[in-house]
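Forwarding the complex inputs:
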Amino acid sequence: MDPLKRVENELKKCVKCGACRAHCPAFATFGKEPAVARGKVALAQHLLKGDIELDDATYAAMSKCLLCGSCVEKCPNDVPTDEIVVVAREALSGQRGLTTFHAAVGRVIRNRSLMKFGAAAARILGPLFFRKVPETSGLRLRFPLPFLGGKRHIPSIAKKPFLDRHPEVIPGEPGKPRIVYFVGCMTNFCYPQVGEAALALFRHLGCTVIIPKNQQCCGLPGMSGGDLDTVRGLAEKNLAELERYEADYIMTACATCGGALHKFYPNLVGKRHPELAARLKAIAEKTVDAAQLLQKLGLNPEETGAGSDIRVTYHDPCHLRTRAITRQPRELLQGTPGVELAEMEGADKCCGLGGTFNVYHYESSLAINKMKSAAIINTGADAVVTGCPGCMMQLSDGLKQQRNRTRVLHTLEILARSIRP
Amino acid sequence: MLDNRIIDELKTIVGADNVATDRQDLICYGYDATQMEFLPDAVVHPGSPDEVSAVLKLANREQFPVYPRGAGSGFTGGALPKGGGIVLVVTRLNRILRIDTENLIAEVEPGVVTEQFQLEVEKLGLFYPPDPASLKFSTLGGNVAENAGGPRCVKYGVTRDFVMGLEVVLPSGEIIRTGGETYKGVVGYDLTRLLCGSEGTLGVITKIIFKLLPLPEAKKTMMTIFDSIDGAAKAVSTIIGNKIIPTTLEFMDHATLQCVEKRFNLGIPASGRAVLIIEVDGDRDLIEKQAARIQELIKPLGLVECKIAKDAAESEALWKVRRLVSPSLRDVNPDKFNEDIVVPRSKVPDVIRVIEKIQQKYAIPIVNFGHAGDGNIHVNIMIDKSVAGQEEKAHEAIAEVFQAALDLNGTMSGEHGVGLAKQPYIHLELKPAQVATMQAIKKALDPNNILNPGKMFPV
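Prediction (whole assembly, two chains):
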């Protein structure tokens, strides 16, 4: 159980008080103790002792975690269960090999050109295989992957990925910050409009925006399956790419990518590869979320007439919430002319995506998402706004499953309406 | 070990999905908040009182132990399967059956989480006051079985004071109702009070009828810092002596303050030797007057500082100090024994002084905080189990702490119960005739000793 040795001290911190039972979305749907943080910690402790096997039951228990970090935030003893689960998954995949699905995920995210090819193929061949649902029904593209039972709605793929649209360096005004933009795969291939909004906002503030051409996937989809070799490989490539520039900030507009650079690289990859630790830490310290940075740089939204009045509700992505970035996006939205913010119940609760959790536990993922959709619909908002393209995909899916037309937008898309071009 | 035939029968009763025998499941139902661990032979999740009844009948026939369990957040091992058999998890029984706003009562199943129930009744302007620290995850069934307390006890009482009636599956498998929906009732023995706090040894609770109160209009939180533990204790008796009963009177001793301050740097003055968090609730005008009167009363008692929250956010900030205690303690030592002695209110300083002496004698850090309003002190004996001899020393210190509480006319447990953890010390408090009476009751209800055996009384 070598990987688990690395978290031996963390495992000792858990006193099995049960506080995590109150906050775990997976436990809320499965209802049984192996699904909750202290159960998984207990299993990891027994794995380390060697008195249980890395068998199907252990695998099943460890797979029931969204890595949302809500147990970590509320744990009276600061037990980092999210990291423990990843390390346990690493141990499992080390012994049993990666599942076919996770092996495929690893292969795709390790190889940018393969991902690009896949995206292009999906866009071109999509209409042949996927049913196009009339816009009037509020549905869009259906993507009947076999393991999803044909129910899932996924976003369409952009004609031209965001990274192919702009030069690497977009100079700003002298004396203004130099920002390296870590774009992320979801924005690049599915939601390029988020990237466009980020670009518009930071250029509006006079910043120099650098979009490194060779940036890779952050690796979090691999982390979710315990494939830390893939994450390490990607972290090293991204490090080399991000270190090329003298940047004041490394900016992400994707909570997941931000979580990777800011938290998971130093904590998971760093502990495993001490020779990389200092470099990972340096990058982590420079990493900021777009909303955090916009507020810091003093974005002043104006009445532009670019959009009609809109009532929005804000969903906290787990990877922003766990970094305490909850106030900034709300304050920016509230300060934007024509935007009314209506809080939903459980805004801080996970949307149910949880990396690859939604692939293995689609029904539970849907159940979690259903509560989220209900909370969104209850606010009567025109749009649900969030800071993570992963959440955007999951929220869209959930709302469409409910045949609801509430729009799903990124915070930056709303903010970009209020700046003069 | 249960043979496969019994496992199959259990599956027939509750459904195959609700019986688990994988080692992983056994591990996950073998612990609670005590740090002890015992693996059952199976975990069973019944979905109705009839299923509970059928399981208990089977247990009687086949003579295997049954350990009822809610959230498994107990501090004394009350739900731990020491001795094999099955853990009977009641969390599937988790419906609030009705809230009767006319008669101010509610009927619930045992697996409802305490806070969830509180929020539901509060939506209707009603109030369920018992508030154990674990309220966000502990279940009402567990609260009743352990007779849980909490900070609001000083004004409102403990769980038992709100239980009007129960539906219980007796160890024989028979389902009975105790008490009822009326505030008065003197027909027969009061089985409801007997079952509250019986730690799952006399029956499995399957329904609870609770008494509710009107939700107080407002509350006011004050944090008062004193230059001595005596000042804080005197404040408690002075406030109550002047006929003000606050909702809560939470206290933290100097060792606790040092822990919190060291880790979180909250700006508690160095001259502060004890803190009292005082909360009053009720009519808006009344609580203003009470807060002012409290301030006036405690001023001469060595008051260093008094902060009064203006709104909910400020109140939350004051309570934060109390909530940070637990995470801070780990900095003292990695392992703790959390005991919950009670002494008459006025004896709090006396017992703290004795505990200080015990601490010096054994050279183990002891940190005290708790519910000063009802004299309930959480005595945290902080040790490092990896250091040879520390655990033994802790046990000796615990026995002395219990004796100190008893010498001052107190008790060795206010809200955690006996379970396994306090079993070795029960003879300090209960005389042989008391124990014999209790065991006679147990024997009458559970002749085969199948329900939560080995708990409460030394085997």
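Residues 390-407 of chain B form the longest helix (18 residues).
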